[in-house]
Amino acid sequence: MTVYAYAESTSCVQEGSLRFHLTRTSRAPARGTVTVEDVAADRPVLTARFDGPVWTLDVPADWSSSLYRAVFTSEEGEGSAEGLSDVYFVVRAAKPSSPVLLSIPFPTWQAYNRAGIPGESIYWTEEPTRAAKVSFTRPGGGPPPERWEEGMLRWLGPAGYDVDYCSGLDLHDGAELLGGYRLLVVNGHDEYWTAGMRDNVEAFVARGGNLAVFSGNTCWWQFRLEDEGRTMVCYRDAAMDPMATVEPGLTTVEWSSAPVNRPENTLTGVSFRRGAGTWGPYMQLMHEESYTVRFPEHWAFEGTGLGEGDKFGQGAIGYETDACDFVEVDGVPLATGRDGTPPSFVILATADLRHWHRYGQGGMATMGVFGLGSGTVFTASTVNWGNALHDPMVDRITRNVLDRLSEPVGGWQIVGGAGSPRALTVFGSRLYGVAPDDSLLVRDVAAQNLRWQRVGTAPGVVAMATPREATAVHPIGLYGLTADGRLVFDDQENGWTTLAEAPAASVGLGMVNGEFFAVNAEGLWKLGPETSEWVLAGPSGDAVSLTAMNGRLYIADAEGRIRTRPPVVGPAGWEDLCDAGGCTVLTAHAGLLIGTGPDRPLFQRPPLPDR
């Protein structure tokens, strides 16, 4: 006779206990054998007997933090109902043993449990007999037949990654849990999130943790928990949810829908709203699709050998994908932010799936990365990423993400391809550069790899600066130093005019409070607003470039370091700050240093010490 089983929780800690409840299809006592398997390692770890309606597992201290499956078989040996005698659960680490924590999407598994059965499942969305509440205290609730999560779970160990596991439900009150980790990994199909889950993960990243989303359709529905976490509530309709008139932000609808109006884009950068889906008999179409590289210089593609426009990852595109709203700017995708995507979101790769409108939902997939507070978020934007890790490109990108985000993230970030401008400055929200052929170049200040556009010339200009604000003497515009020792100005209307002589062989220019600072081999020089005489302000610091921001001066020196000092006249030394990242040309804007060098990409970073 069939044994039906469920656990009292979706997770327990090492050296903890977990109780399983058992029933039979007959009145006979529940007796038989239970085998516990480590799903990630694909190996059995325990075989035991059960006798009665409750079986308790005492988890040994030496069991790895992982996803486990307990399989209950009745002693009559007549088999079992698939999924009803299999109980999945996570063993959490008693204390963090890895910088990486991987979440298992038990809420999504439970949401699909008994899908389509009237009153038994919160599916389907437009089915009037769907349930508004379902219980975790019932059999089922394991992975779907497609097993979106399993590929990555089986890959991690052999690939050399020892990670800790948790249930997605552990994130609901998980601030303390997350505090022990550097990186949270979301994998497969993680569609259902409570407000507590989302609040805690967003706070974790804002404090400096990192998030890697190897998932699609992520954080699409909000649900609530009742009965001490044992009941999942999801009306899918504000008109039916009593919370809509009590606390609208907790209404169980799509996160981006009214009255919640909290697009998941602010957490993941993307949303299923602009993603794509192919369902039912058309699901296999996902295996025909690939990504197209849009930012090959980015660290995510390091070691892949991929170039702009190359295809990769056929089959990694799952049956549901996420995307952000973007426009093409001279052949480069740029997120618009109109859908709630943060302005720092950088599109790394895209898949055009608009033709899927015939099979479910047409849209895009946009792989990307962005900063959230002090942390970093990467998203692959697809449910099937983990099952395509046999692809060398998917393998390499995954390693790049895990390796980088499991450590403190800092340093220089690539924001553009190699262009070798010899001078940089920011005027308004636009970045200006001077090319080796004296062309004046411009592009938006953005982390996306936008292309330079020629807008004029800058004859002989070797360094540039722009004041933060106009003064009575110096209006806003482009100021430059020329190779023949002149201070020049371009107001974008009348071309370049000479203002004064400048220290010979200067390599950098900065402006602070209406005062000019230049640097050459002899030292740091200052020119006040009411004089045409440059005075020696201090040592050069062996500078090869100079810029200013927020009342401080910054140089890149000949030893490849960034140094800083206040803009005062005197012997104040240059304080060592961080690695220059190979940059020999600097500017600064909105709290970031921006730099480049000969045959180097365009970089940016905050002016903070290396971590």
Protein described:
There is one protein chain. Helices cover 8% and strands 38% of the residues. It has 611 residues and is mostly beta strands. The protein has three domains: 1-81, Immunoglobulin-like (Sandwich); 96-406, Class I glutamine amidotransferase (GATase) domain (Rossmann fold), CATH 3.40.50.880; 414-605, Neuraminidase, CATH 2.120.10. A nine-stranded mixed sheet has the order 11-9-12-14-26-25-23-19-20, with helices on both faces. A five-stranded mixed sheet has the order 2-8-7-4-5, with no helix packed on it. A four-stranded antiparallel sheet has the order 27-46-45-44, with no helix packed on it.
Taking pLDDT < 50 over at least 5 consecutive residues as the criterion, the unreliable ranges are none
Strand order, largest beta sheet: 11-9-12-14-26-25-23-19-20
CATH homology group of the largest domain: Class I glutamine amidotransferase (GATase) domain
Helix content: under 10%
From the N-terminal CA to the C-terminal CA, the straight-line distance is 60 Å
Number of helices: 6
Using the CA coordinates, give the radius of gyration: 29 Å
CATH fold annotation of the largest domain? Rossmann fold
Arithmetic mean pLDDT: 95
Strand content: 35-45%
Major β-sheet, in short? 9 strands, mixed
CATH class of the largest domain: Alpha Beta
Structural class: mainly beta
Number of domains: 3
CATH architecture descriptor of the largest domain: 3-Layer(aba) Sandwich
The best one-word shape is elongated
Compute the number of strand runs: 46
